[in-house]
Amino acid sequence: MLFSDPGPLLQNFMTRQSVPCGGFDFDLLSKATEWTAAQQFYPMYPALDPAVIAGRVETLTAQGFLVAEGTPPAHFDIEYESFWKWDTPAGLYHFGMKDPPYLNPQQAAAWMEYRATTAAPVPLFTTNESCEIVHELPKPDLTKGLMGVMSRRRSIRSFLPDPMSVESLRDCLFAGLGITGFLDTHLPEAARLLPLKMTPSGGARNPYEAYVYVNNVKDLASGLYHYSAVDNTLGLLTPTPPVTPAQLLIGQYWADESGAVILLVANFERTMWKYPHPTAYRVLLIEAGAISQNISLAAADHDLSTIPTAAFSDTYAHALLQLDWIKQALVLAVLVGKPRPDAFETQNFIPNDGRQS
Q1: Least buried of 50, 193, 219, 236, by fewest C-beta within 10 Å?
Q2: Of the candidates 203, 188, 184, 177, which has an alpha carbon nearest to the alpha carbon of residue 273?
Q3: CA dist 247 to 125, 193, 314, 336, Å?
Q4: Helices in the chain by DSSP H: which ranges?
Q5: Helix axes 279-301, 166-177, angle to 10 degrees
Q6: Does residue 169 contact residue 220 with C-beta atoms inside 8 Å?
Q7: Given CA atoms 126, 129, 132, 135 in this order, what sign does their dihedral have?
Q8: Phi, psi of 342 (to 5 degrees)
């Protein structure tokens, strides 16, 4: 139940349906804890006309707050209750974040212009002006080695038509998800061998699979692929995906110009098997960031640009990848491609000399 200005609302977090709620509706729903025929509610409210009660039962069922036995909504409800080991707030976040309304690029630009002119600025970093400086750290060399690769990482939304190499795609996938070996725990078979990667994973549960929407990769046909991290292969799912990358990523047109889009899909069951506490849901989401960073660094090593984004259509993603609405979710997409050589300069980059304020 939510409380709004006009009055209380019922909200089904799995469908995100919200309707005004009276005290009778709330009481009726509190009594529907097991399969109950509509007429069984009549004796519970002797002062009310049975037709009124039947009408409310019918309306609440149509709105999704009651489910009729044997129907698809009932099966979905049962599947959720039997599978979801984390608590209700985690479930609310999981379903509540699906298919939110997004701004298109033009609307986003207009919104930023509006915010910049109407809202007080928020500092994007914190200095040590109020502290005693006990040590000035020498600046690392950003021209070579790992620091050189990391300093070249940029999210540039303008790609060349030149194809990226299949080797660079391989390195991106392996850096983020490739299984380098196994840890023998000497536990029973169900938990004995744990996959190890170059990114951290809570309990080594390895919840992510990668799907690759190939646009422009040399020696690799366009289409949708699954990346197998254990044997380092790409399996073709379809050469003609039903949606374009830009449609999947809700209008980010530069996605159609990228070399490939790597889609990171979480399998909640893998993590939930070991960790019933909802903190595991937070850890699972954080893991996508670690994977994305490794992908980005491998791409930078090949002079490629990456653009991680969480703005996508969940409905398109679930249909495209045949995902389970409860047990799986696309968490992050990473665009990879050859950036236009003049794009970096047009970003108005200003090196940090330690004196900006």
Answers
A1: 219
A2: 203
A3: 35, 39, 11, 17
A4: 23-31, 50-62, 72-83, 88-96, 105-118, 145-152, 166-177, 245-248, 268-272, 279-301, 314-321, 343-346
A5: 150
A6: yes
A7: positive
A8: -95, 0
Task: Tell me the domain boundaries of the chain.
Answer: 2-83, 145-344
Q: Which amino acid is at 308?
A: P
Q: Are 248 and 320 in contact (CB under 8 A)?
A: yes
Structure tokens that stand for 65 in this block: 């707050």
CATH topology of domain 145-344: NADH Oxidase (3.40.109)
Tokens of 303: 């002079």
35 vs 265: CA distance, rounded Å: 35
Cα–Cα distance between 93 and 98 in angstroms, integer?
Answer: 9
The pLDDT of residue 356 is above 60:
no
Residue with tokens 């990391």: 150
Model confidence at 215, pLDDT cuts 50, 70, 90, reads very high
Compute φ and ψ for 279, nearest 5 degrees.
-55, -30
Q: Is the pLDDT of residue 357 over 60?
A: no
Between CA 240 and CA 230 the distance in angstroms is 26
Q: Three-class SS string for 214-264? A: ECCECCECCEEEEEECCCCEEEEEECCCCCCHHHHCCCCHHHHHCCEEEEE
- Cα separation, 164 vs 302, whole angstroms: 9
